[in-house]
Amino acid sequence: MPQKYYQPAVQHTGLKKHHKWMIGSFTFIVIVYIAVSSILIYTSFVKQDLNYRELNQKITDTQSNINSLSDNLIQTRSTLEQTINSLDVRVGTIDEDMVLLKASASEDFSGIIEDVIKSVVTIRTETSQGTGFIISSEGYLVTNAHVLVGSKTYNAITYAQETKKAELIGYDPELDLALLKIDGEYSALPLANSDETQIGEKVIAIGNPLGLQFSVSEGIVSAVHRLGIDGKTSAYTQTDAALNPGNSGGPLINKQGKALGINNFKIGGSENIGFALESNYIKQAVNEISQQAFGKILV
Questions:
Q1: I want to staple 122 with a disulfide (CB 3.0 to 4.6 A). Which of 12, 157, 173, 225 is the partner?
Q2: 272: left (phi over 0), alpha (psi -120 to 50) or beta
């Protein structure tokens, strides 16, 4: 019997187009995924490397700052030691100055200068320099208002050579008087009764003429109750004690170690004709300023 051959109903001719498309797409996705992963991994490594470099730089900078700080501390210590040494020298200089001051004054004042001068301060601003003196143990002091004109900050240098920031409490423009305050406790210079001032009595002026700190000039009272520059108020004591730029705001002191007045001005071009605002006017003005500021009597 003859053998029969059967032909398949469907003839396989290879993958169809949509199959090829699917395989191609899958392959493309895999390749893209691998590429993107590689890029991300590379980026991550690069970022880590940058972070490491940045951290290493910060460590280096920190160490450098530590070294710099250490050097500064050493320098500060050295400077401090030098300052202390110079302070010792300065204290010695002040003691020497005190001896000279006593020697330059007559017997009437040599015994009181050491106490009085401790109440005198140097006033320094951005624009000028003058003198002041402490009238209260709480650190209240007076000076001439014109010493402070044009400035916003004020410093007082005490007899102990401490620079203190001064606060302006108030001022009287007519009397050219200003009241300031510094921190700390001090020896106050008492105010005399200027109505008892005698013509011819001996006085000394303490100040900083031409920047020469704590200078003393001696003279007498030439007149009392003189008119001021404004020609209105008879509130000034005339003296022949030498007054120069820098004496403004300093005290005029009698033999009892009290302030008869605050040195204010001299006649331009003249010699030994100076004027000091009398102490009773100082007291009145200071208490008016204090009452306005604090509601209390100060001196």
A1: 157
A2: left
How distant is the alpha carbon of residue 129 from its chain centre?
A: 15
C-alpha dihedral, 263 to 269 to 273 to 276, nearest 10°: -20
C-alpha angle 80-86-90 in degrees, rounded to nearest 5:
140
CA distance 46 to 51: 9
Integer Cα distance of 171 and 34 in angstroms: 85
The residues that are catalytic are: 146, 176, 248
pLDDT in tens, 139-189: 999 999 999 999 999 999 999 989 999 999 999 999 999 999 999 999 999
Let me know if 154 is exposed, middle or buried by CB neighbors in 10 A (0-12, 13-18, 19+). Answer: buried
Q: Which residues, 6+ apart, have CB-to-CB distance to 15 below 8 Å? A: 23
CA 102/CA 99 separation, integer angstroms: 5
Query: Which 8-state DSSP code applies to residue 189?
Result: P
Alpha helices in the chain (DSSP H): 17-104, 107-110, 113-116, 279-294
Top-level class of domain 194-283: mainly beta
Burial (CB count within 10 angstroms: exposed 0-12, middle 13-18, buried 19+), residue 200: exposed
Is the whole model's pTM more than 0.70, yes or no? no
- What band does 17 get if pLDDT is binned at 50, 70 and 90? low
What pLDDT, in 10s, does the model give residues 193-214?
999 999 999 999 998 876 677 7
CB 126 within 8 A of CB 152: yes
Kindly tell me the burial class for residue 85, based on how many C-beta atoms sit within 10 Å of its own C-beta (0-12, 13-18, 19 or more).
Answer: exposed
